[in-house]
Amino acid sequence: MTMTPIEIKMAFDQAYRTGYRLEAHAIGDRAFEVMLTALQQQNTHPRPIITHCQILNPKILERINIYNSSKKCKIIGPLIADIQPQFCTSDSHIVFDRLGETRIKSSYIWQTMAGLGCILAGGSDTPVETPCALQGMRDAMSNIIHPDGSEDLSQAQALAMYTIFAAYSAKVENNIGRLAIGYAADFVLLHLKNLDDLFISNKGTDDLSKSVQMTFIGGRCAYDQNKEDLTDEMSNLCLTTGNNGPGKSGIPSWMRSSFATYNKRDRPMWQCPCCRY
């Protein structure tokens, strides 16, 4: 926790007075519970967003259900969970030992949150993870933390996270997020017959990025895989992914070790360069 409940309330009030949207980051269950309490005490922030939503507990799930079923939510909208499905894969080697068998049952539970009425918006948390929506969709449809498949999202749910619900969370759902008349022509052409092809072999992020044949932004071709040389305008619209990209996959081990010794509370933990100060 980096803020006290009083500081959170003051920040909420200031955000409302100055016209800012409300979005808060909460990875652990204590942080999530404090944020949910603050939201329940506020009746003015439309479409509240909590980012990450990784570690919850049964009490929180019950409160989410009550919150999303309340009369207030019919006015301001249900809770938006801005999740990063890639965390399931990258956290899988540590999370079982740290959380234990009981707590893991209420962690990384995207399908459960959707069932409680939350809007799931997909993100990557770049540069901590690589900004590859296809990887996020794949990890959402195959939740490695829950191998029984109970928390896997369907193809339609995974696609909606990065399109219509991402637009909804940003309050631009009338302009982007779907292929329809009057909407911005933002879309990609893929070397995939269907989304099941994301699971063929053990494709890495680099391979998934290579599945993108063409990218259109506002109706203009911003990327064409068949063109070796991109114009400066095209290059500015593209992100580098894979081993040369930002985040954990693009940071050499010597940098990780140096960042691991630094943080404001003197606790050993890795921090990406953007979060260092």
Summarize the structure.
The protein is α/β, with parallel strands linked by helices. The protein has helices spanning 5-17, 29-41, 58-68, 71-76, 86-104, 110-115, 133-141, 155-161, 164-169, 205-209, 232-237, 253-260; strands at residues 23-26, 49-52, 80-83, 119-122, 187-190, 212-217, 220-224. The chain has a four-stranded parallel sheet with strand order 1-2-3-4. A three-stranded antiparallel sheet has the order 5-6-7.
Q: Globular, elongated, flat, extended or rod-shaped: what is the shape?
A: globular
Q: Which architecture of the domain at 5-175 per CATH?
A: Alpha-Beta Barrel
Label the structural class.
Answer: alpha/beta
- Strand order in space, largest sheet: 1-2-3-4
The CATH topology of the domain at 5-175 is what?
A: TIM Barrel
Quote the average pLDDT: 82
Q: Give the low-pLDDT segments.
A: 239-243, 245-277
The whole-angstrom Rg is: 20 Å
H/E series, N to C? Answer: HEHEHHEHHEHHHEHEEHH
Number of strands: 7
Characterise this structure:
The protein has 277 residues and is α/β, with parallel strands linked by helices. It has a domain at 5-175: Alpha-Beta Barrel (TIM Barrel). Helix content is 39%, strand content 11%. It is built from twelve helices and seven strands. It has helices spanning 5-17, 29-41, 58-68, 71-76, 86-104, 110-115, 133-141, 155-161, 164-169, 205-209, 232-237, 253-260, and strands at 23-26, 49-52, 80-83, 119-122, 187-190, 212-217, 220-224. The strands form two sheets. A four-stranded parallel beta sheet has the order 1-2-3-4. Helix 2 (29-41) links the parallel strand 1 (23-26) and strand 2 (49-52). The model is unreliable at 239-243 and 245-277 (pLDDT under 50).
